[in-house]
Specification:
Elements lengths: L1 E2 L2 H9 L6 E2 L16 H8 L6 E5 L8 H14 L4 E5 L5 H7 L4 E4 L3 H9 L3 E4 L8 H8 L3 E5 L2 H6 L6 E4 L4 H12 L2 H15 L4 H27 L1
Parallel strand pairs: 1-2, 3-4, 3-6, 4-5, 6-7, 7-8
């Protein structure tokens, strides 16, 4: 049984599963790259404001805990009035958020190069969701060189080093989430250092590396089954 995180592996083993193996999820570190940063796009988002740019990527829906995201951003804006919030995606909360927060930027759904350019052109990824099975967007943000604030489970628990790549906040600690967004969002040098470290941390998760790990797992299984067959016929 293949699992993408050690936590899930521990859970399954405690539930009686045998032969649980860890196989990391990949992130396309060629597509998601800090070099895709686009100053023209940033200028359009900022409209003359100084930044920083906080970005949300994903479904714009209540299960993503977006009210906390808004509170954290507004707290950041109290100390960084030029901050702007960019929302990539769509969903049932988009209309209300756009009506109540006319300064927010909504791009709609983006994919491929357009998504990679949006990630790389932001400064901070704030991800308050508590309902993810993994959270691939965390890896995409890290690969794009973004300091990331997320709850400490799923992909964040597995790959986001608290204090090194951003903040991995204990679940349900909303005040700590807001504090981390304000602290990291207000410190340009800290964001840059964390973003660079985050990028380095996910470099080994390239699709080629993960495919090679999967191939090695299959080869090991094939060898084991072959050994069993020889014993059975001996």
């Amino acid at each position: 049984t293949l699992v993408p995180t050690r936590a899930l592996g521990d859970f399954l083993e405690a539930s009686g599963f045998r032969d649980v193996r860890l196989l990391r999820r990949a992130v396309d570190t060629v597509l998601f790259d800090p070099g895709k940063r686009d100053d023209t796009l940033r200028d359009a988002w900022l409209g003359g404001h100084a930044g920083p740019v906080v970005i949300h990527v994903g479904r714009i829906a209540a299960e993503k805990n977006l009210d906390l995201a808004v509170r954290a951003f507004r707290a950041l804006q109290q100390v960084q009035p030029g901050a702007r919030y960019v929302w990539v995606g769509d969903g049932p909360m988009r209309e209300r958020l756009a009506r109540e927060h006319p300064d927010f930027v909504f791009t709609g759904i983006l994919r491929g190069e357009a998504l990679a350019r949006a990630f790389a052109s932001a400064d901070l990824f704030a991800f308050p969701s508590t309902t993810e099975t993994f959270g691939n967007v965390t890896l995409e943000a890290m690969a794009s060189g973004l300091a990331t604030v997320a709850y400490d489970y799923g992909a964040a628990h597995e790959h986001l080093r608290d204090g090194g790549h951003g903040a991995a906040v204990p679940l349900q600690h909303e005040a700590a989430f807001v504090e981390a967004v304000v602290r990291i969002g207000s410190d340009h040098a800290l964001r840059k250092a964390m973003g660079a470290a985050a990028r380095d941390a996910v470099q080994p998760l390239s699709p080629e590396r993960v495919s090679a790990d999967f191939d090695a797992l299959l080869a090991g299984l094939a060898g084991r089954e072959s050994g069993h067959a020889r014993l059975a016929t001996a």
